[in-house]
Amino acid sequence: TWLPLRKDLTPLTPYGAPQLPAQASLNTNENPYSPSPALQKAIADAVLVVAANLNRYPDRDAQVLRTKLAGYINSTSKLNLTLDNIWAANGSNEIIQSIFLAFGQGSALGFTPSYSMHPLIAKVCGTSWIDGKRNEDFSLNVQLAVEQIVESKPVLTFITTPNNPTGGAVAIAEIEKLADACKSVGGLLVVDEAYAEFSQEKSAVTLIANNPHVIVIRTMSKAFAFAGARVGYLVSDVAVKDAMMIVRLPYHLSALTQAAAQVAIDHRPELLGGVATIIAARESVVKALRDMGLTTIASSANFVLFTGFKQESPQLWAALLEKGVLIRDVGLSGYLRVTIGNEAENTLFVSALKELI
Ligand code: PMP
User: Fold this and answer.
1) Which residue out of 90, 97, 219, 330 has the highest number of ligand 1 atoms within 8 Å of its CB and is therefore the one to mutate?
2) What confidence category does residue 1 fall into, taking pLDDT thresholds of 50, 70 and 90?
3) This prediction's pTM
4) Cα(first)–Cα(last) distance of the chain, in Å?
5) How confident is the model at residue 32 (pLDDT cuts 50, 70, 90)?
6) What percent of the chain has pLDDT over 70?
7) Looking at ligand 1, which atom is closest to the CA of residue 29?
8) What ligand 1 atom has the least distance to the C-alpha of 227?
9) Mean of the pLDDT values across residues 45-71?
10) How many helices (H) and strands (E) does the chain have?
11) Predicted pLDDT of residue 17
12) H helix or E strand, kind and range, residue 240
């Protein structure tokens, strides 16, 4: 064809969670609770201040935002991190991309099924991707994972905890074993903690001081209920953050985004207030699914992967959509993933599913 597209990109397809209108949108692991009117106003006020200076570039280094993010992580993990341990970007997807741009010379290893953007961004950045193996029940087999790291010597090893789309979390002692294995082959361990706030496990940010080979990815899109603003960040040793500054585009994080995110962090008791409700609702949805005779995979996140229905996954997915419920076919035959929504959405999902199975 006429288009000189890079040869290695031709087999790839765009990321494509369908954005369809539905009564219950339970497909992209968003938080169902929108900001309160008071918080909406606080954000609008902060944006108004910034609007007066939109002729100027934003702070290229987002220093105020990074300081606030360090404060948040310090408060939850009892650490003394500073802005030098934080890098922020347009969603954690941009963080993942920057990690590949900075460190992706060689191969990257992940354990499937996991977050589908890890291999996609790897390939887009020209890093070869190795699909590592998990246990049959989707839990991470740490012994096997260590063997795979030692054997293939990846420059980057990805784990997602809690894992998307399966929901299980990895204990900190196990992450430490993986970190040691990565260190022994001269690679980095990237721990994607997009759903950490929904889990009881200790965060891998506590490992960084003793093991600078560990990079933790976080996002404001899930527990923080701030997906529309696009703010993700990493927590790392200062050397990793310095490498991010080489590959970042100048002024990548707009003044509007920085201002809105700073207000959101200041209002975190409100924004994170939905987490406990979502966890309780997750347990109710799991019970309802089990009462229907379905099998659920144990989840420490704001979604549940389930199986045991008689239809093919795409058929059941489409039938639910007909009833106004949009969930996710993650490409695992016989499974579907549902995000935990608000009470009305969860009720609609459970009643629609009951009629279909
Ligand atoms: N990591 C994981 C594991 C995710 O599930 C997601 C979103 N689905 C992301 C990263 C990206 O999130 P965002 O770019 O909104 O921060």
Assistant:
1) 219
2) confident
3) 0.98
4) 46
5) very high
6) 100
7) 8
8) 15
9) 98
10) 12, 12
11) 82
12) helix 238-247
pLDDT at residue 18, rounded to an integer: 87
Tell me, using a 6 A CB cutoff, whether residue 221 lines ligand 1. Answer: yes
Pocket flag, ligand 1, residue 185 (CB < 6 Å): no
| CA gap 357, 355 in Å, rounded | 6
Structure tokens given for 103: 């460190």
What phi and psi values does residue 139 have, to the nearest 5 degrees? -70, 160
Long-range Cβ pairs for the range 15-18 (8 Å, 24+): 15/116, 15/117, 15/120, 17/328, 18/326
Per-residue pLDDT, averaged over 36-65, amounts to 98
Is the beta carbon of 194 within 6 A of some atom in ligand 1?
Answer: yes
pLDDT over 90 (residue 146): yes
Residue 239: in which H helix or E strand, if any? helix 238-247
Q: How far apart are CA 301 and CA 125, in angstroms?
A: 29
Q: How far is CA 219 from the centre of its chain?
A: 6
Question: Is the beta carbon of 148 within 6 A of some atom in ligand 1?
Answer: no
Lookup: tokens for 187: 């690679």
If you take atom 14 of ligand 1, which residue's CA is the nearest one?
A: 91
Task: Fill in the amino acid letter for 266.
Answer: D
Q: One-letter amino acid identity for 63?
A: Q
Residue 310 C-alpha to ligand 1 middle, in angstroms?
A: 30
Q: Could you tell me the pLDDT band of residue 15, with boundaries at 50, 70 and 90?
A: confident
How confident is the model over 263-270, as a mean pLDDT? 96
CA-based nearest residue to 353, from 319, 304, 328, 329: 319
